Amino acid sequence: MHDRERWFQAARNGDVEEIKRLIKAGLDVNERHPLGWTALQVAAINGHERLVELLLESGADINLGDDFMNVWQTSQEKKMNSLHVLITREDMFSDYMNNRANFQGCTALHYAVLVEDFVMVKLLLESGANPLQENVNGYTPVQYSRSQEMKKLLEGYVTKFEELEKQREMEERRRYPLEQRLKEHIIGQEGAIATVAATIRRKENGWMDDDHPLVFLFLGSSGIGKTELAKQIAKYIHKDVKKGFIRMDMSEYQQKHEVSKFIGSPPGYIGHDEGGQLTKQLKKCPNAVVLFDEVDKAHPDVLTIMLQLFDEGRLTDGKGKTIECKDAIFVMTSNLASDEIAGHGMQLRREADKIMKERQASLEGKMEMAEQVTISRKFKERVVQPILKHHFGRDEFLGRINEMVYFLPFSRAELIKLVAKELDFWAKKAKERHDIDLSWDRQVLDLLADGYDVHYGARSIKHEVERRVVNQLAAAQEKQLLHTGCKLHISVDNPSGESSLTDRQTDKQTKQPILRLQIISRGSKETIDLSSVPAPEKMGFTPFS
Fold first, then answer.
1. Which portions of this protein are annotated as coiled-coil regions (predicted)?
2. 19-27: long-range contacts (C-beta < 8 A, 24 or more apart)?
3. Mean pLDDT estimate for the chain
4. Residue pair 131/102 in contact by the 8 Å Cβ criterion
5. For residue 223, how many other CB atoms are within 10 A of its CB?
6. Which residues make Cβ contacts (< 8 Å) with residue 436, sequence separation at least 6?
7. Contact (CB, 8 A) for 533 and 522
8. For position 261, what pLDDT does the model report?
9. Domains in the chain and their CATH numbers?
10. Which of 5, 131, 419, 425 is deepest in the core (most CB within 10 A)?
């Protein structure tokens, strides 16, 4: 018998000493049975209190859900005989459960309530079990309680748990502010991050009108972080982006008849029973973060529905049912005025860079200074607002936006970070897929940052790294120049000593900097000029005859 089999057998029998021995031997306390359950769930359903205490002391996740569905579904998924699954479930877990019911997502607390073990339920609740956690069917433990005593116990702990969670969240926010969380995932855009974080903080702490949902309009060029910031807001609020984030591509709603696709067709029309793409998802999560991507492309009738949504915090679907969503956060993105914002932003960065250099020079380089770039109110009112009003054609729509958030072009320092992040991504892939160590000089970051296009943002950096590095690495590997386990180092070979794209373009006779790849394998060193390795699309292949 293997240790894993002994582990679950001991959990079924309540063998504390055997569990202690296996934990000491290094077995993961949250190890799952091949059919989905954990030792804690087994101990809880079988009433082994001392064993439950030991497992929790050893780090067992009290709120981990079971992966077991029912006998038939599990046998289909695992490609096992259903009778074998049934016998294993009864022998290694419990013979108390209904074989047809779906138990996926059930926690130890769910199981203790199902078998009406009052002592076990109290033990789990006192140890921090979440009485509000739902299984795959959407049921919390209290919904399985049959006795009034059990129900009263669970409901009492629901109130306590909510208060403790609120305190924990407040402490977490104080210790780890939203700005700090967002900056870990988004490069640059400090002004946008500060505006969004301050507005969400007002909402969380009750300093906003509760009758209206929170509405943002994110403005700026493509590939500059607008969508990513919306995702990070959802992750912060819901912890689970899949559940709490709804993305609507508004380029799909450019025609009048596509309103029905948005909220659902009225009775008597085709697709009535299917519901609308937005309404279906808002029903599941009324407090979601909803992203309306490229909102400027939506038909005016769709904007009318959105205005009702923003103004009243509710939406009526095609069936006439009203969905309350005052707690939702709506984020619209648009490329309107992106050229004007980008041009203004670049000018501001140049001015800020000049001022910063003068200040640093006066301080003789003793102090590092952060670049401060803020779009003026005058620019917003005289340049951006007229463009928005001309396009949307209604002041009341713009009036329901809480904050217009401006995303600026990346500074040179931010571009270096973007290139480094992209190279780190490919270095990780190289290690995982090919056991190849990839490193580079600082000058490589500067050279690749020259590929930045203000109109495409971070996507232009991604494309530059793929075009100048990844394509060539793939081609070199195909030509068997690279070997598993080797080390690669990228450097810049620039005979002219130039590193800036502008400088290179001023002198047509100047040789452009090129990337060199040094391969270190089994003690030998070989240097390859990456520009001399043809990209895959330029390589000739001889077809099989």
1. 147-174
2. 19/51, 19/54, 19/55, 20/54, 23/58, 27/3
3. 84
4. no
5. 22
6. 430, 482, 484, 485, 486, 487, 488
7. no
8. 84
9. 3-171 (1.25.40.20), 178-409 (3.40.50.300), 412-538 (1.10.8.60)
10. 419
